[in-house]
Amino acid sequence: MSIRESRRLPCLLRAEGLHPRAARETINNGQRSFVEGRSPAQELQSRNAMSGKLAGKRVAILVADGFEQVEMTRPKEALEAEGADTFIVSPNPGEVQGMNHADEGDRFGVDIPLEMWQTGEYDALLIPGGLMNPDELRSTDAALDFVRHFFVTGKPVAAICHAPWVLIDAGVVAGRTLTSCPTMQTDVRNAGGHWVDEEVVVDGGLVTSRKPHDIPAFDKAMIEAFAKAQPASERETAPLVP
Question: Greater confidence, 17 or 228?
Fold first, then answer.
């Protein structure tokens, strides 16, 4: 640990609201962490992961090429900050292409090919939006079966922007209140859902939002819903209900 880093670490820990004694213990742990090659930020992230609301939870992020990048990266970061393990699941092998509206963004490695997922492997599901992403997913039978699994087994699901297109084709929207990109409201109503124009809507274990501007509210509601998910070993198979 450099002298400059060692001086900054106590301030960083106090900013995190630690009791002085806890701060001293974490600094000592930090000294050991630097020997192991971890930075102060990584040490704090490790501590948060062990004590966060989602510690031990496994969250699948279902995407194909053309997802709105910020609708994946920011919720993913929020989930991991609360201790969740996140996994990009996709029908596309290797990598998937993010988009910044109409412009190509970054490419992201796929953690689990859709064809390799196993029942009971995940505790919750996040579906980002974008135009091309949900259109490809709703045309893929394996993706629709994957989504239905979360509803049938009572696991929470979060979908933003155009992602409810996937829910519509999976047949899980009827009787539910949700929001989405406003241009989809007729699609939601035709599928039997009740569409509302709100930044975030929670209907049982289903969390939906309209657009990237809603991400702070979406993240907060998603974390609360995912925190209530029972571990796979304790969950009973039942439909998702309010």
Answer: 228
The CA angle 106-112-115, to the nearest 5 degrees, is: 120
Residue with tokens 């629709």: 144
Rounded Cα distance, 205 and 66, in Å: 26
Q: How many angstroms from the chain centroid is the CA of residue 9?
A: 29
Comparing CA positions, the residue from 180, 221, 212 lying closest to residue 198 is 180
The two structure tokens encoding residue 171 = 């047949």
Q: Which residues are catalytic?
A: 162
Nearest C-alpha neighbor of 199 from the set 209, 189, 186: 209
Three-state secondary-structure class, residue 147:
helix
Residue 40's nearest CA partner among 1, 85, 86, 82 is 1
Domain 58-227, CATH class in plain words:
alpha beta
Give this prediction's pTM.
Answer: 0.78
Contact between 53 and 124 under an 8 Å Cβ cutoff? The reply is: no
Q: Where does the pLDDT of residue 132 fall: very low under 50, low under 70, confident under 90, or very high at 90 and above?
A: very high
Phi, psi of 21, rounded to the nearest 5 degrees: -65, -45
- Percentage helix, strand, coil, to 5, in the chain? 45, 20, 35
Residue 177, CB half-sphere, CA atoms under 13 Å: how many?
Answer: 10
What's the distance, CA 205 to chain centroid? 14
Q: Give the phi and the psi of residue 4 in degrees, each rounded to 5.
A: -65, -45
